[in-house]
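Re: that backbone. Tokens:
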């Protein structure tokens, strides 16, 4: 197979999506005249999407147009595209989609996976860094019962930046907070209308001069993997390598897995795991 000719594939994709629909599926009245081709007419797609018929024709003929994100959104709605089809449409048009599906706030089936990954400390968070699920080893690493925390405080950033009991959790607090805040800034830019996320940032920056100083640096970095220098409240220092995974079905969520970075740290994690049994 040759490489994708995006203009031609966009044209063919729009035609096939139009031809699979009936007027009834998009709340248009059925016409008495016999249709010569299956599906909707181009005029009907144009009406539904709020664009001209000529524009739809040129798109379906592959005449080199590059639709804007707004036009793509309108076409996706008019053609009743699924989330996967919508993403495909934007990829073909070489545009970045606006966020469409609301972020998942529940752990769902991933809660079982978090438990199955024991004894590796594991948790599931959303784009606001709220902790949606965790296994006993992760709670023990924090040295607290996460289930007893008020939901607004069951947040990795709030815990590590404002919780008094975790002031010494990071052995290199400056670096750890700077990396976390850079990640937070990236999420904030990607979710500008998330009021709860904005309120969290306000709480963090007004509640800590340290956080306010680092936030003002405007560092941006999405942390997919790395290393953390930690200090357990009773077991002592340890170093963990972390990996962040984004599930395909819920990309707004992140699965975070800790592993020991050296034999001494493995001993600390083993001791924590024994306390959880």
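Recovered sequence:
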């Amino acid at each position: 197979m040759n490489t994708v000719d995006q203009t031609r594939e966009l044209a063919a994709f729009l035609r096939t999506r139009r031809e699979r629909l009936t007027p009834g599926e998009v709340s248009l009245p059925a016409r008495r005249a016999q249709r010569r081709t299956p599906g909707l007419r181009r005029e009907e797609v144009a009406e539904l999407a709020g664009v001209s018929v000529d524009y739809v024709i040129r798109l379906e003929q592959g005449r080199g147009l590059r639709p804007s994100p707004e036009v793509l959104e309108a076409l996706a709605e008019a053609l009743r595209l699924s989330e996967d089809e919508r993403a495909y449409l934007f990829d073909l048009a070489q545009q970045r989609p606006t966020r469409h599906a609301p972020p998942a706030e529940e752990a769902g089936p991933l809660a079982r996976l978090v438990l199955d990954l024991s004894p590796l400390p594991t948790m599931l968070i959303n784009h606001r860094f709220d902790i949606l699920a965790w296994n006993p080893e992760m709670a023990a690493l924090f040295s607290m019962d996460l289930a007893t925390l008020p939901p607004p405080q069951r947040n990795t950033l709030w815990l590590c930046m404002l919780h008094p009991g975790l002031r010494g959790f990071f052995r290199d607090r400056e670096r750890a907070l700077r990396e976390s805040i850079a990640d937070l800034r990236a999420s904030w830019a990607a979710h500008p209308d998330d009021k709860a996320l904005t309120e969290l940032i306000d709480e963090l920056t007004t509640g800590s001069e340290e956080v306010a100083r680092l936030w003002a640096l405007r560092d941006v970095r999405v942390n997919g993997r790395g290393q953390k220098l930690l200090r357990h409240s009773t077991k002592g220092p340890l170093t963990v390598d972390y990996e962040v995974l984004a599930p395909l079905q819920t990309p707004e969520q992140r699965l975070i897995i800790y592993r020991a970075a050296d034999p001494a740290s493995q001993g600390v994690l083993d001791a924590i795991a024994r306390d959880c049994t």
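Residues 173-190 form the longest helix (18 residues). The first strand starts at residue 122 and ends at 125.
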